[in-house]
Design a protein that fits this description.
Strand order of the largest sheet: 1-2-3-6-5-4
Helix content: 10-25%
Oligomer: single chain
Largest sheet: 6 strands, antiparallel, barrel
Number of strands: 6
Number of domains: 1
């Protein structure tokens, strides 16, 4: 049986970091992103119900997107799922823009200089 989500999720590989008041903090790779939440691959163990502040490095050219509060909804070995709870209006606008871009142009790893071919 397939799980139906309210918002489509897009596969990405963004660097991210997260902190929780005195409980846990660390870095991870954000693997799925939607307007409502994300999935993170991390060696740091977090418990469901934990509130985190999350920073998402969606672009090399801009400061990280900041989610003021995201709640851990599930956790298994080296991965956990977050639901976004609180964002500042300008961060919400940036998140919407990022997701819209992913809809139009699915995520590709940024090409390294070795990959670029001479025109």
């Amino acid at each position: 049986m397939m799980e139906h989500r309210k918002s489509p999720r897009f596969p990405v590989r963004f660097r991210s970091s997260f902190t929780s008041l005195n409980i846990v903090g660390g870095e991870g790779t954000l693997l799925d992103l939607s307007l409502r939440g994300c999935r993170i691959d991390s060696l740091v163990e977090v418990r469901p119900g934990t509130s985190l502040e999350l920073r998402i490095a969606a672009s090399e050219d801009e400061p990280p997107l900041k989610i003021q509060e995201a709640v851990v909804r599930w956790s298994r070995i080296q991965q956990f799922g977050l639901e976004f709870v609180t964002l500042a209006p300008e961060e919400w606008a940036r998140l919407q823009h990022t997701v819209t871009e992913l809809e139009l142009h699915p995520y590709q790893k940024p090409p390294s200089s070795e990959d670029s071919e001479a025109a």
